[in-house]
Amino acid sequence: MVNRIIISLFLMILLAGFTSAESDNAIRITSTNWDEYSPSFSPDGKYIAFASTQNGSPHIWIMNLSSRETKQLTTGNSSDLFPKGWSPDSRKITFTSNLAGNQDIWTIDIDGTNLTQLTSDPAADFYSSFSPDGTKIMFTSDRSGNSDIWIMDADGTDQRQITTSPSVDMISSWAPDSRRVLFRSERSGNGNVWMVDIDGTNLTQLTSGKADDGGASFSPDGKYITFDSLRSGRMEVWLMDTDGKNQVQLTHSEGLSMCNIWSRDNRTIAFWSDRYGNADIFFMDVGYAKRPENALFAGLLLIALIGILAYLWIQKRKN
Questions:
Q1: What pTM value is reported for the model?
Q2: Residues 264-276 pLDDT 10s
Q3: Does residue 5 surpass a pLDDT of 60?
Q4: CA atoms of 115 and 131, how far apart (whole Å)
Q5: What would the pLDDT profile of 79-121 be if each residue is shown by its tens digit?
Q6: Domains of the chain, earliest start first
Q7: 131-140 burial, b for 16+ CB within 10 Å, e for fewer?
Q8: For residues 308, 310, 311 and 317, what is the CA-based torsion angle, rounded to 10 degrees?
Q9: Residue 20 contacts by C-beta under 8 Å, 6 or more apart in sequence?
Q10: Could you identify which of 44, 54, 73, 279 might form a hypothetical disulfide with 60, taking C-beta atoms 3.0 to 4.6 angstroms apart as the criterion?
């Protein structure tokens, strides 16, 4: 009887461990009948910006993370997208809009004032973000004939091209040192995560394989990178070291999960997912609980449990 109880307890612990390992424990932040996507945390940790189709066309919104109150910043008939970058003082957001008739980079203050157009090229400019030091803004543009990564001063001047591959380069994000950028490129045949210095040197491929990878973000402390990947059969958020090693899956759902971004606490990421139907914003406490060393520990624990169960079975046979 005692052996049976011990075995049952071990099996319950083991089952609980595997259940926890497969559950992403993501917290749903928005829950509307519309689509909310492209989240980004303010550097001071007080707000999150996102795009929402609540009033028809997509517009830029912010949420106060303490009160959960939301505020619409942009209005009108334009399509306002990708509020992916905050100024370091958490007062200004950069985003993409066709307000002037073409897809360009704009900024707006969090009180809805000082709407400013930064690019006006006939080509499409999109997916922009402030550098962590606030001096530069990075964006994607097809003004060279295909999609490449560009950079400019924070006031829109001195626009220059960083990547020059004939392949598609897009969806860029900054390293914490403001000297390197991550981006998605098809230069190796399919979408993968690459890194390059802002002067165009030290080009490095971080992911490889047949699945499409992209949408990468550095943790604020520069130790980890999250990225979006189709390698599980649907788009999910993954985690890896900054050299591309130790890649592990973070999100597990029946829907899409993507467009990840880190908060300043180095533990929380935001992303959008349609796991409940329409697109909503979710938070996840990464906590590095799914790091490979913990998976190794779980494996060793499993071996130990199997050994204990075998011992108990042998002792039962002897008795």
A1: 0.83
A2: 999 999 999 999 9
A3: no
A4: 19
A5: 999 999 999 999 999 999 999 999 999 999 999 999 999 999 9
A6: 30-288 (2.120.10.30)
A7: bbeeebbbbb
A8: 150
A9: none
A10: 73
